Amino acid sequence: MTHFTYSERSPTDDLYQGDILQRTDDLVAILEAIHPHFADEHSYPMFMVLTQSCDLVRRKGRGCSSHYITICAVRDFLWAVKREVGKLGHPDLGKHGLLPISVKTKASQVVERFLNNTEPGYFYLHPTGLVISKPMSAFLALSISLRAHEHYDTCLSARIVGLNSEFRAKVGWLIGDIYSRIATEDWQSQADFDREVFESQIKEAINYPFFWLDELGERKVRKAAKEGSLNLDNQEEVIEFASRLPPQHDEIAAAVKEEIMRMDGQKINETVANTLTERILKRKGVESRYIERSDENF
């Protein structure tokens, strides 16, 4: 079933704001000649039309009123999430996906804004069959212009799906504050809304690109970098270093147990020390894990 964001387009329809363009041979040829950087298939798998729909209407006997068709890059959704959620942490660590666990709730809120298209600068595109096979995001600020009288038909031939009217208006508002705030539907308002699926998508998005550290772990990484034993510009080295750090729970528990065992004039066996240690840790609310990560993604 087509996601509620989209609207089917007839091949004879004019271009509309929000139309999604695939990489056709003709479009790629134009990009290679005019904007070669945007011809890279890995970085720019799709594009979105940003020009207002009213300026793209073709009148009889002449073309559209706009001299240019502005299109923006459509890239992997999780790449966009990593870029924005990474700003919640320290600049040198966030760029590698290492974040303090204290910001995980804020990270979930960022992902929710993405999904409901309220995150500035982006427009989320949900998978819809083979046309869009995985979650994508339009990078509204990453745009280029093509000459309308030369390249209109090429863009039209590259269109694979369009947005429905309210979401076209939302794109317009997002890219230039042209419209008042548009009250578009969000996921929760749908009759078949499944909260478990929605929250699972948020969880997947924040677990995939990130390596979660608590405050102690972040301090150790930054200390190692300051002392010169860790190169923060080398992502593999940073991730490997973080993965070798001992669990905070074990580290603190060992220190507490050692102090309990040392108590003057008292003989406390290890079993009692372990029990007391766990009670103290639980009372203080110490996190049970030092690092949260999804191993299959690293």
Offer a quick outline of the entry.
This protein is of the alpha+beta class.
Question: What this model shows, in words?
Answer:
The protein is an alpha+beta fold and 298 residues long. It folds into two domains: 6-207, no CATH class; 213-297, no CATH class. The chain is built from eleven helices and ten strands. It has helices spanning 25-34, 77-85, 91-94, 104-115, 148-158, 165-176, 195-207, 215-226, 235-244, 248-261, 270-284, and strands at residues 6-7, 20-22, 46-49, 68-76, 98-100, 122-125, 136-147, 159-163, 211-213, 291-292. The strands form two sheets. Strands 1-8-2-3-4-7-6 form a seven-stranded antiparallel β-sheet. α4 (104-115) crosses α7 (195-207) and α10 crosses α11. The chain is elongated.
Number of strands: 10
The first-to-last residue Cα distance is 33 Å
Strand neighbour order, sheet with most strands:
1-8-2-3-4-7-6
Write down the domain tally.
2
Question: What does the secondary structure layout of this molecule look like, with pairings?
Answer:
Layout: E1 6-7, E2 20-22, H1 25-34, E3 46-49, E4 68-76, H2 77-85, H3 91-94, E5 98-100, H4 104-115, E6 122-125, E7 136-147, H5 148-158, E8 159-163, H6 165-176, H7 195-207, E9 211-213, H8 215-226, H9 235-244, H10 248-261, H11 270-284, E10 291-292
Parallel strand pairs: 5-9
Antiparallel strand pairs: 1-8, 2-3, 2-8, 3-4, 4-7, 6-7, 9-10
Helix pairs in contact: 4-7, 10-11
